[in-house]
Write the structure tokens for this entry.
Amino acid sequence: ETGVTQTPRHLVMGMTNKKSLKCEQHLGHNAMYWYKQSAKKPLELMFVYSLEERVENNSVPSRFSPECPNSSHLFLHLHTLQPEDSALYLCASSQDLEFTEAFFGQGTRLTVV
Amino acid sequence: TQLLEQSPQFLSIQEGENLTVYCNSSSVFSSLQWYRQEPGEGPVLLVTVVTGGEVKKLKRLTFQFGDARKDSSLHITAAQPGDTGLYLCAGAPSGSARQLTFGSGTQLTVLP
């Protein structure tokens, strides 16, 4: 139990579908993150939230839409994705932005067909 | 963008052998973390080093932060199959997690 839970663990979706990834942290952390992990590439930071406000958006296509309704929950809404978006999507949290130690969820393995 | 280069990319060894993996950059980091990731799971934090020259030990794992805080190494003694996984280093130039940069990882396989 890492304290960060992601659902679903696996997702297969068509390019015209709309789906959402969910992340929940039970650590009392104030910062949450979405990362994308593709084969043979370093983890790519997608979005950063601090106290429910987005503080970073690293040039992510608009087909990815994050939502942070409270400090414990983070969503990633997906629509009209492309096959190259297939990857492992990881959620992480840290105590706040000034702490570098990140705690990761188990990830959602996304396949776009 | 501060790049972290890890070497080797892949390493396959027999149980009981020792190994060292490296994490190098031309940038200075205020802290550096090492994570281990197993297939189908997220990365799990192993250690954080913050002081140049610092050495930390975690059972059979020894982590060292370079004097100039630009590089780090992970040494495993008497490797076991349970050590198999992807080892990732990550650094934050200014100490903020919003700038955490990850290396591409070293895939370690320890054969029984």
In short: Chain B has a mean pLDDT of 92. The first strand of chain B starts at residue 5 and ends at 7.
